[in-house]
Every structure is written in structure tokens, then in C-alpha cells.
Amino acid sequence: MPMLKIFVGTMYGGALDVAEQVKPLFEGAGYEVAILENPSLDDLTAPDTDLALFCVSTTGSGDYPGTFANFARAIADQSPGLSSLRYGLIALGDSSYGETFCGAGRQLDELLEGQGATRLGERLEIDAMETFMADDAALPWVEAWIDTQQLKVA
Ligand SMILES: Cc1cc2nc3c(=O)[nH]c(=O)nc-3n(C[C@H](O)[C@H](O)[C@H](O)COP(=O)(O)O)c2cc1C
């Protein structure tokens, strides 16, 4: 069974909740799913990581949350090259923060692209000003993502 890793960066658990809610959709599509709350660079560069979903909130002024900052720094510093990685990205944020809206998700997208990874589809940005429960936006997006990117394997 192919593996899908969900890399999570969260402060208050919203992004983790999204990961947990979408997990069964990927299982139904034929994947073994691992949710990584404290991801390391090794998780990303392991040979079984060719498809990933990132669920990342923004804190501070467009900053990565908690331990996710170390993970992102490791990618930037060690520049592993990720040309075999295909990924989707769900960014959580709040538009009342203005210019730094979804800043962590946007930075991460650039970082991954710079390492040669290929984003499948558009980035989903979930605005807490508009969407009270992030799952309400994430679930239909993931369903459509699996469909349009033809990710179903079973
Ligand atoms: C201290 C703090 C700083 C924040 N800074 C930003 C920001 O710069 N940009 C943004 O889009 N959202 C910002 N947010 C909003 C969070 O990203 C948003 O509420 C998100 O849904 C939290 O997700 P989580 O439950 O996974 O931590 C901030 C929230 C807090 C509490």
C-alpha cells in the first residue's frame, strides 16, 4: 500500500484536527496514512515519501508554529533536494492579520518549490475569519484533490 504522510504545524490543534479528519479520505483512496506532528527532515527525505500533504497554521507575524519552524529551517539549511516529492498544501490563517495572512503556508510552499518539489493543484488557504471549523473547508477540498489529481490507488 502506498504511503501518504501528513506534515502538521499547529499551535492550538486546528491543523492537526484537519489532518485527522482528512486521513480517512486517503485511506479510502488506498493509502496508508501517517500524521507527523513533530516532523523531522528524515521524515521528508525517506524513500517512502513521494506524496505528502502539509497542514500548516501561521503564528506570530507570518511565522511557522512551534517545532515546525525547526523542520522548515532544516529544509532551508540542508537543502536536501526534493524533486521526487509531490505535495498538497493546506494553510490555516486569519485574514485580520493582513499581509501575513497564511504566511507560514506561503513560505513553506516557496521553500518546497525551491527544493524542486511539485505542488499538485492550488494551495488551500483557510481563513478563520470566514470559516469557523477548518474541516468544513478542508474535507471537500481534499475529496476534490484526490479526484482531480487522480490519486486514488484502490
Ligand atoms: C498569536 C497569534 C498570531 C497569529 N498570526 C497570524 C498571522 O500572522 N497570519 C495569519 O494568517 N494568521 C495568524 N494567526 C491565526 C492562526 O493562524 C489561525 O487562528 C489558525 O487557524 C490557528 O490554527 P491552529 O489551531 O492549527 O494553531 C495567529 C494567531 C495567533 C493566536
What does this structure look like?
With 154 residues, the chain is of the alpha/beta class. It has a single domain (3-148), classed as Rossmann fold (3-Layer(aba) Sandwich). The chain has helices at 14-28, 41-45, 68-78, 103-114, 134-148; strands spanning 3-9, 32-36, 51-57, 86-93, 118-119, 124-127. Strands 1, 2, 3, 4, 5 and 6 form a six-stranded parallel β-sheet that branches. Strand 1 (3-9), helix 1 (14-28) and strand 2 (32-36) form a beta-alpha-beta unit. Helix 1 packs parallel to helix 5. It starts with a strand and ends in a 6-residue tail after the last helix. The model has no long low-confidence stretch (mean pLDDT 97). Residues 10-15, 57-62, 65, 92-94, 97, 100-103, 128 line the site of flavin mononucleotide. This is Flavodoxin domain-containing protein. Keywords: Electron transport, Flavoprotein, FMN, Transport. It comes from Halomonas mongoliensis.
Brief account:
The chain is built from 5 helices and 6 strands; from the N terminus they run E-H-E-H-E-H-E-H-E-E-H. The protein is of the alpha/beta class and 154 residues long.
Q: What spatial form do the alpha-carbon principal axes imply?
A: globular
Q: How many domains? A: 1
Q: Number of DSSP helices?
A: 5
User: Can you write the helix and strand succession as a string?
Assistant: EHEHEHEHEEH
Protein name: Flavodoxin domain-containing protein
Cofactor: FMN
Keywords: Electron transport, Flavoprotein, FMN, Transport
Organism: Halomonas mongoliensis
